[in-house]
Amino acid sequence: MPYLARSLISQKIIWGGTTSELNIFLKPHLSSLFSFRAFSQRVYPLLFLVFKYFQLYHLNFFLLTFLLLSTAVHAQDSSELDEDPYLDPAAANLVLQPTTRAKAKQAYMFGISYGLNPIILLAPAVSIGMYWDPLVLGLEISDSESLGIWEKERRENLGEARLSGETQFIKWFYGDNFYLLAARESRSIKLWSRTYNRTSGKALYDMFVETTVASLGAGYLRFGDIGFFSIDIVRYNLVKNHTVKIVEYYETWSELSGNRDALDQNIKDRSNKWIKTINAPTGFVLTFGVFF
Length: 292
Known about the structure:
This protein is α+β, with helices and mostly antiparallel strands and 292 residues long. The protein is built from 9 helices and 8 strands.
């Protein structure tokens, strides 16, 4: 890599010298061709001037091509680059091949996470962590009431609802920037004022769905000067422990129909749908933040 850096720097120096030599060569010709004195001494037809311009243009093009090809071949000679007094090989190697992921072995991290997660998708998470090479320990907290997005769409599709979650995670680097992830997530969806109204009966109730998910995954994290960027590529769910709580306010199915089987089936179908949604796996969660 130091050899590549020296080649690029040398190529830039040669390019500058080539441009300077080309300007020195073409300046007198351009001055003599388009100067006011030259036009005052002789008058050329327009066609002749166009022909002279293109003639000079082709001369410029072929000369520039020749000089660039010669300098490109000259730049391949490594014997002259090894003794470049303007390049510090140690400094170039430190920039191109850093020995550590961050400036310090320990740092505090703060960021915002967003991605394909049933909770984070509508409520971006606040991520707080501590980097202790080669580990990252942290916590993600999301709440649609505090930091929610798509509020209009959420109300139109879900009605009166609140989504929240908390994730405790540990990341272990097994390479320069890639890591393995283990996480424990607590997710909650609260749905108020659910109705099931038919001619055979009516009902009004609230539904509260909670789940605990353990997951394993992998991702990528890179530190900058003061900030960092990470992406949890995938989190695969291993353990699921969910509960559904129903709070009924009234129902007329028992009185009008003699039984509430249809209502119970409706509650069961809705519960299964939300359990499947809340237990969905997580993937491509992006986190942008700063560390100090």
